[in-house]
Protein: Cytochrome c oxidase subunit 1
Amino acid sequence: MSAVLDHHDHAHDDHHHAPTGWQRWVFATNHKDIGTLYLLFSFTMLIIGGILALLIRAELFQPGLQLVNPELFNSLTTMHGLIMVFGAIMPGFVGFANWMIPLQIGASDMAFARMNNFSFWLMIPAALMLVGSFFMPGGAPAAGWTLYAPLTLQMGPSMDAGIFAMHILGASSIMGSINIIVTILNMRAPGMTLMKMPMFAWTWLITAYLLIAVMPVLAGAITMTLTDRHFGTSFFNPAGGGDPVMYQHIFWFFGHPEVYIMILPAFGIVSQIVPAFARKKLFGYASMVYATSSIAILSFIVWAHHMFTTGMPVTGQLFFMYATMLIAVPTAVKIFNWIATMWQGSMTFETPMLFAVGFIFVFTMGGFTGLILAMAPIDIQLQDTYYVVAHFHYVLVAGSLYAMFAGFYYWSPKWTGVMYNETRGKIHFWWSLIAFNVTFFPMHFLGLAGMPRRYADYPMQFADFNAVASVGAFAFGLAQVYFFLFVVLPIMLGKGEKAPQKPWEAAEGLEWEVPSPAPFHTFENPPKLDATATKVIG
Structure:
């Protein structure tokens, strides 16, 4: 037995040097490197999706057709949605999960290191296929990001490339989720019970279960679309006895939990940051865990609120209306808990806290418009108008994206060993917040006045608000270029003051027990936690 142990020790010693050059990244099995790859990929896709959004806003700056024809306009709206959801937001949060979950729970790495590498590299061909679909015969898919039948049955070959890309991305998500679940359930440090885990680990555990539950549903919907297109089936083709509305049911059974997949990790990040800068423990930890679980469970019984105009029976409308309104309860619990955490805390407003508080403020506005859209009679009026566009951008941009910015400013000193420039971080925050609201707030009024989404042209009465929104959109896009050039690049190049092990006075958690930058191999011997699970023994 001692010989076996001996052999293991030597094997371990061989791995102490970190791999270098291109092999370090291509064959990466270290959770930190893979996390970095995910974050860089996510930001690249954010910029590509953002360029598509700016083309949309440039077209809508004035009435009439300026830059693109209506078909290309539909391609732009479709690909903007797909790239942002599957290429920017989801991989971004997986990057945070890869970096932070092992550090937060005291694990040496993710459970399945090679599968982790594979799940990242799968995304590259999928992204190339999505972006490359613009150059295929007939152009990119133009059926909306929801890919509704019967439009999908009329699209060119790029539709098939899109379907294949979605399958690959779904496989990547499922592998990533399995990895996260096994890591959290099996690799926590001794003494870290589930109810002592950081909130970010909790939200990701729940998100991972959601992903495993719904990605196969999306795969089913797009596979049926594929067989309708090429193999003579008629799942969604009424001429052959199919039902286009069935596609919507299947898609939204995936699509509604999906929007919570994109916000729960954001809740986790904000739940880490607010206590640190309020210098208080998170108010109502247990209720936060239960609220997160409730949101996840309820997300499965509200899908048809996207379909109030499909001719659903009134009993169905009532059920989905009340079920949707019910989700507001656990979400409000979270908002109140964050506010209670800040209440009478000795708060300081460094950039992570600014983004976290900005998140709470703007996400709450998005939540309220969601509650308004939950009412069937109102939704029937506002369906597919710019009011809906305003609503979901308030929760996805000011929700998911702001939380990722907050997490970046909070944890990047630990990742890189370099402090970001505080002044530039604050400029990024205020510039983003103001530009975001200038872009999306007028869309509420456009929607209430009846302007439909996904149209390249519009009547004169909508001109002023559209011009304002387009100016805001370009300002918001420039803010993210500023962020990359003047905040991220200097950090990546190692310019800036050296980060201490614990840059934030009141930050708690195992990630602050390792040096900055976090070493290539952390926690080779699991840390032991004391009774209060706040500090490490030994």
In short: The CA atoms of residues 191 and 531 lie 8 Å apart. The chain has 17 helices and two strands. The longest strand covers residues 528-529. The radius of gyration is 23 Å.
